[in-house]
Write a structure and sequence with these properties.
This protein has 20 helices and 4 strands. It is mainly α and about 425 residues long. The chain is globular, with a radius of gyration of 21 Å. The chain has a two-stranded antiparallel ribbon with strand order 1-2. A two-stranded antiparallel ribbon has the order 3-4. The chain has helices at about 10-25, 30, 40-50, 55-60, 70-80, 85-100, 100-110, 115-130, 145-155, 160-180, 180-195, 200-220, 230-250, 250-265, 275-295, 300-320, 335-355, 360-380, 385, 390-400, and strands at about 60-65, 65, 405-410, 415-420.
């Protein structure tokens, strides 16, 4: 897509980013008022590793089957350069910076469909109000998902110049070294480079694939808790539950109940084939609409790339999900596996609301406000388990009184603890 839009006014970039940050911090105010928070493995694995190992071993420590360089480096810096009582503030700050990268890409992009400030703000709001984002927000172990989201945006949008393209290439290098998400999307960059045949696209392709090769050759290993199971019906039902019902008719109790019911049926071997067939027909319809839009209007092709990236990441995430795809059927569970897909599908619909045919634009013009309303509802209705947890200052005080005390970290249920020397 041609970049016929001038560079952005700084206020049109900084103000939405500031509001995005403020709303995130308000959402997790409980942690900010208690010394910050470490989330699960961020404390019990990564920060504990930083406190007991050399900097080299901690930085290149491979956990869960892969290297997570962002989590390793963040907790390492927090341990060595912050007082223990305030260490989580640094990891949360680093995580916030990575979480702002996706909206920054949108707000500074010069793609034609993002030419108006209203559209850019709408897409930024969609990224903030992704129905299931609490689990991946403001902690370093899940910065990998925000990096994967950035990869999906970069491969789908026009290349940039100057510092914008330099930032994109840094993100493309870090993403595969922080988790499987970047590795999953690397082949899509090969396809995009073959289609575009430009130097910038070739450079992006080489960077992300080189980084992916480093991850796969030197750090990736089989993790026993991952079943690596492909159950077609499970995948289709997860798509129905998490990508259709939750964003559009996702009143929490209804969708959670429906997801649990589907999960019980699947685990009992009683697959609801009628729902599977109807969902497949809907997927084929959506794919047909995207293909038709791409053939009719070049400006709509970005929507196709967004959808391709969403589908690829979502499917691969379910394949490698702990416990298999069936564990992701109930809404609110395993949010990390659907966050990137939900985000990119939302951006694809927003893109079609601008670039599609007249009928498609009208339909998507209704879908976007629905996603915003439902997203806002889920933003404030998130379960307390993700928004509240033990007071870090209180835990550190207990540890200083008794160094054998196991410090509790978030979430509160199930209980996670860490030990410091």
């Amino acid at each position: 897509m041609p970049m016929n839009v001038p560079y952005r006014n700084k206020k049109e970039v900084l103000l939405p980013l500031a509001l995005f940050s403020l709303l995130l911090l308000v959402r997790f105010h409980s942690a900010l008022l208690q010394g910050g928070r470490f989330m699960a493995e961020e404390g019990s694995i990564f920060f504990e590793k930083a406190s007991t190992s050399s900097w080299y071993d901690a930085l290149f420590y491979s956990y869960g089957g892969y290297l997570n360089i962002v989590a390793n480096a963040s907790t390492l810096l927090a341990f060595h350069f912050m007082p223990v009582a305030d260490a989580p503030y640094l990891t949360m700050a680093i995580a916030l910076l990575f979480q702002l990268c996706a909206p920054l890409i949108i707000l500074t992009a010069r793609d034609a469909w993002l030419s108006t400030f209203r559209v850019r703000c709408t897409v930024t709001a969609l990224l903030l109000l992704v129905p299931e984002s609490a689990e991946v927000s403001l902690h370093s172990i899940h910065s990998q998902y925000h990096l994967a989201l950035c990869c999906g945006l970069i491969v789908s949008m026009a290349t940039e110049t100057g510092w914008r393209e330099s930032l994109r290439r840094i993100l493309l290098f870090l993403a595969p070294l922080s988790g499987p998400g970047g590795v999953i999307l690397a082949p899509l960059f090969i396809l995009r480079a073959l289609v575009d045949r430009s130097r910038s696209r070739l450079a992006e392709c080489l960077i992300i694939n080189l980084s992916s090769a480093i991850q796969m050759l030197f750090f990736f290993h089989k993790f026993n808790d991952r079943v690596y199971n492909f159950n077609f019906c499970d995948f289709v039902l997860v798509f129905l539950s998490r990508y259709i019902m939750y964003p559009f008719i996702g009143f929490k109790h209804f969708v959670v109940h429906a997801g649990h019911h589907l999960q019980k049926m699947e685990m009992a071997g009683d697959t609801p084939y009628s729902l599977v067939i109807l969902t497949l027909l809907l997927i084929v319809l959506l794919a047909g609409i995207l293909a038709r839009q791409a053939m009719r209007d070049r400006d709509a092709r970005e929507a196709v790339w967004f959808a391709l990236a969403a589908g690829l990441h979502g499917s691969a995430s379910l394949y490698g999900a702990l416990g298999g795809a069936v564990t992701a059927l109930p809404a609110g569970c395993a949010e990390r596996y659907v966050f990137v897909g939900q985000s990119l599908f939302a951006v694809s619909i927003a893109c079609l609301s601008v670039t599609g045919t007249r009928t498609i634009r009208k339909i998507c013009a209704y879908l976007v406000p629905i996603m915003l309303v439902m997203g806002a509802y889920h933003y404030v209705a998130t379960g307390k388990n993700m928004l509240h947890g033990p007071s870090w200052w209180g835990e550190v005080a207990l540890w200083r009184h008794d160094h054998s005390h196991a410090l509790r970290v978030w979430p509160a249920e199930p209980e996670w603890t860490m030990h410091l020397p």
